[in-house]
Structures are given as C-alpha cells and as structure tokens.
C-alpha cells in the first residue's frame, strides 16, 4: 500500500502556495506508469501548475503543485488525490501479475 | 478480436467485453453495469457521480474478466467514452482506462458515446440504414448516415427529452430507482386525462424547457391546491398520473414528428430508437404507429443496450480500431462536447 507525504516547497512569488505529494511505489515501472496516466489531464485552471519528479535511486513519484491561492491549491490537490485513488487501486488489483494469480490467467 | 469497453458519461458505469469474428455477428462476452441512484427529488451531481464510478470501476472490470474468462493477453484494445457527457465522471473512467492501457500494454480507443449507441443498435437489431432517434437524459438527436458520418438532422435546442422527464420526476419526488424515466412511465400508464401542454417543435428541432416549466407549475398547483385546485375542463381533479401521461404524450409526439420529417427527407422507412428513453414502451408504440403508416418499421433494443452500457463502447471502439484508429495516450482526454458528426465512420462505406 502506498502512502503519501506532504511537504511545503520553496515559494515561487507568482505561485506562493505549494505542495508536494511523495508517493513511494514498489517499482520504477509503476512510478512511470502512474506519472504517464496522470499527465494526460492538464490542470483546468491557469492559476495552478503541476509538475512531476521521479527520483533515480528509489521508486518514489513526486507530484509538485504550486498555485496562486490556497483555495486553488486545495481544489487541485483534492482532485489529484481522487484520481490517485483510482490509479493506485487499478495498479493494485488489475495489474497483469495480480490477475494471473487471482484469475489463473 | 476482443475489446474492453468502459462507459461512465452519466450516472451509469458500464463495463463490456466484445468479440468480433469475421463473418459472424458480434459476441457479447460480458456486459455489466452499476448505476448511481440519487435520492428522490435530487438529480446526480458530477462530483458524487465521479466518486461512484471511481469506487466501482475496478470491481466491475475484475468481475467482467472473471465472468467471461477472457485473458488480458487476448484483449486487443481498451475502449473508453471520450465524450460527450459530464466532465468529472468521464475523467474518472478515462483515467482508469489509461492506467489499464499502460499496465496491460494495450492501445486505447476513445469512443463517441452517441456513436456507441448507434452502432450497438444497428448490431443488435440488424437495421441496415435507419433514421436513428437517439434519446436519453443527456441527448436528443435525430440522426441519419451519409458519406461516412452520422449527420444530425434535428435535435433538442435546450434540454434533452430525458432531462425534461427526469427533472419532472424530481418535482413529483418520484423515486430514481431504477431510473426516474422508468417510474414516470409506470405512472403514466395509470393516467386518464390528457392535460394540454405546450407543443414545441421548431422545424427539425424541438424544445423541452418551456414544457417542463409549464408542467412544473401545474404540479405545484396540484400539490398545493393554490391558487385553486388543478382541474380538467370537465371539473375533474388532475392527478400526478395524468401529468406524467400528458407530459409523455406531448414530448413523444414531438419526437415522432421530427423523426418522421427526417424519414421523409432522407427517404428511409426504418427507424432505430436508441438511448435510455428508447426503453419507453409508449414511445416505441407511438413511433411504430407512425412508421407503419409510412409502410416502415421501428427497431429498438432492450434495457441491456438502450441504457448506457460498456458493451456499446467496446463495439464501436473495436469497429474503429479495425480500421486502424487508435487514440494515443497523450490524446486520451475527455470532452463534454463531442458532436456525433465529428466522428469519421470509416468502417461503413
């Protein structure tokens, strides 16, 4: 089960409110998969910016948010957590090896 | 070839698995659905609907694979509803589709919801080249095929006919289980008095919001008795059943008229009714009377295919995929507005 750690990032004067979600995952492949799936949806508001970092030595996906207001940040990150829930559950229960074991593929 | 289809543009989450074998009819390997039913008097909001879809998508996909005994390696593509529909619910399903595509290494096919309904209707009924009446809570269109596109001949100018019916169900606090339209239909069967309502056909198009406003006012008068009780011209009290009956008769007559106009224009004798409102037996009956008068016939499917489902997405998606159509990952977004005629129907000539 993945856990998330929220830390404050250095402030950008244009987007003073920021947040980074650090997602430790079982493998780099999964980190890459999740990043690619999430990247397709652009941020709807120009007042929020989202970027990703994957750390080379450990399979942690970092999702960086910065926004013009606290409210925009909260709304955007709420949405991200909801999407993350779906993506993680799909990875957990519908990955090829999991299905092979459960349904005898 | 086998396709997985995921549908979630409104409050129904559908998962389907379909197999296409050359020279044989399409084979439905799995078609399961879970509906988000809101309490009586309430509609379904995007946020809650998306939450429902997110909670059920994994369960339904797993059950679909289990029931059909299809293996991941046998699936050729993953089809999902690109649009039209409600934003958050569409996105909640698309992101699951994307993740599956990446995990399983399968291409994605974004499908137009309306085209899904049309193609499934054609497949199930065998109607060759009908005028299509697509009627649901979110869409009302009269469609005819010409030169590789499904052309919209007429449509609702404001709200869909199903939306009109669903919102009236809220006014009367009718249960949304299994669907508000279904419950209105049952009540309408017990209606006796035809109350006069506005009739709003505008050429090839029609309008429902004015009719809804009037019938809502009548319902308010019926329920409160103010400023005076709602009576027929003969002095009989109008019942909730009478209002349901009158609303259906009026809006369905409008739909029959614009469908007939399209049939006359195109020179077609076949009508195919698709979409959730297409389940309504009174609509099918009225359309049948008109079609028979013209020496034609009506085709309709049952609730497995009328109501939003995953198999229609899998079917239309696989048809497109076989012509070489694929949605690259970066383009696997959703859009609330996606016109039926935007799709190039390469699989037909």
Automatic annotation (TrEMBL), chain A:
A Pfam match: Pcc1
Gene Ontology BP, a term: tRNA threonylcarbamoyladenosine metabolic process
UniProt cross-references to Gene3D superfamilies, sorted A to Z: Alpha-D-phosphohexomutase, C-terminal domain (3.30.310.50)
Gene Ontology cellular-component terms listed: EKC/KEOPS complex
InterPro entries, A to Z: CTAG/Pcc1
Similarity remark: Belongs to the CTAG/PCC1 family.
Name by which UniProt lists this protein: Transcription factor Pcc1-domain-containing protein
Annotated organism of origin: Tuber borchii (White truffle)
Lineage: Eukaryota, Fungi, Dikarya, Ascomycota, Pezizomycotina
Automatic annotation (TrEMBL), chain B:
One BP annotation, GO: tRNA threonylcarbamoyladenosine modification
Residue sites binding substrate per the record: 134-138, 166, 181, 185, 280
Record-annotated Gcp-like domain positions: 29-314
InterPro entries (UniProt xref): ATPase_NBD, Gcp-like_dom, KAE1/TsaD, Kae1_archaea_euk, Peptidase_M22_CS
Top-level EC class as recorded in UniProt: transferase
Keywords in alphabetical order: Acyltransferase, Cytoplasm, Metal-binding, Nucleus, Transferase, tRNA processing
Catalytic activity field: L-threonylcarbamoyladenylate + adenosine(37) in tRNA = N(6)-L-threonylcarbamoyladenosine(37) in tRNA + AMP + H(+)
Matching Gene3D superfamilies: 3.30.420.40
Cofactor note: Binds 1 divalent metal cation per subunit.
Domain of life: Eukaryota
Pfam families noted in UniProt: TsaD (PF00814)
Compartments reported by the entry: Cytoplasm; Nucleus
Needed co-factor(s): a divalent metal cation
EC number: 2.3.1.234
Residues that, per the record, bind a divalent metal cation: 113, 117, 134, 308
GO molecular function: metal ion binding; tRNA N(6)-L-threonylcarbamoyladenine synthase activity
Protein family per UniProt: Belongs to the KAE1 / TsaD family.
Record's protein name: N(6)-L-threonylcarbamoyladenine synthase
Source organism (scientific name): Tuber borchii
Upper classification of the organism: Eukaryota, Fungi, Dikarya, Ascomycota, Pezizomycotina
């Amino acid at each position: 089960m993945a856990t998330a750690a929220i830390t404050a990032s250095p402030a950008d004067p244009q987007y003073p409110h920021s947040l980074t979600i650090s997602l430790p995952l079982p493998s780099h492949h999964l980190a890459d998969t999740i990043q690619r799936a999430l990247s397709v949806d652009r941020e709807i508001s120009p007042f929020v910016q989202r970027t990703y970092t994957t750390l080379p030595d450990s399979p942690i996906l970092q999702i960086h948010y910065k926004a013009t207001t606290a409210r925009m940040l909260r709304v955007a990150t709420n949405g991200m957590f909801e999407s993350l829930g779906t993506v993680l559950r799909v990875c957990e229960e519908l990955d090829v090896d999991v299905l092979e074991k459960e349904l005898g593929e | 070839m086998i396709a997985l289809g995921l549908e979630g543009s409104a409050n129904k989450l559908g998962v389907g698995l379909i197999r296409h074998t050359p020279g044989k009819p399409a084979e439905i390997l799995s078609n399961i659905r879970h509906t988000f039913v809101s309490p009586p008097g309430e509609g379904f909001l995007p946020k809650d609907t998306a939450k429902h879809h997110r909670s059920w998508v994994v369960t339904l996909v797993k059950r679909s694979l289990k029931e059909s005994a299809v293996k991941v390696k046998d699936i050729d593509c993953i089809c999902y509803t690109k649009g039209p529909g409600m934003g958050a619910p569409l996105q909640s399903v698309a992101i699951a589709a994307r993740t599956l595509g990446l995990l399983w290494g399968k291409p994605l096919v974004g499908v137009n919801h309306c085209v899904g309904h049309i193609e499934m209707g054609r497949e199930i009924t065998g109607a060759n080249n009908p005028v299509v009446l697509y009627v649901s809570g979110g869409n009302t269109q009269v469609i005819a095929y010409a030169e590789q596109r499904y052309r919209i001949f007429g449509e609702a100018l404001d709200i869909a006919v199903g939306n009109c019916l669903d919102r009236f169900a809220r006014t009367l606090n009718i249960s949304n289980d299994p669907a508000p339209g279904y419950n209105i239909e049952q009540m309408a069967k017990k209606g006796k008095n035809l109350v006069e309502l506005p009739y709003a056909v505008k050429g090839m198009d029609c309008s429902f919001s004015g009719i809804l406003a009037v019938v809502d006012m009548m319902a308010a008068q019926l329920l409160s008795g103010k400023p005076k009780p709602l009576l027929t011209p003969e002095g009989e009290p109008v019942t909730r059943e009478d209002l349901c009956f009158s609303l259906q008769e009026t809006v369905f007559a409008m739909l029959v008229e614009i469908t007939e106009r399209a049939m006359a224009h195109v020179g077609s004798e076949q009508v195919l009714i698709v979409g959730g409102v297409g389940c309504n037996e009174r609509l099918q009956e009225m359309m049948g009377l008109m079609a028979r008068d013209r020496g034609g016939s009506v085709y309709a499917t049952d609730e497995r295919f009328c109501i939003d489902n995953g198999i229609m997405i899998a079917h239309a998606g696989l048809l497109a995929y076989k012509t070489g159509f694929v949605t690259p990952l970066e383009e696997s977004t959703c859009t609330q507005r996606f016109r039926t005629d935007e799709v190039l129907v390469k699989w037909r000539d």
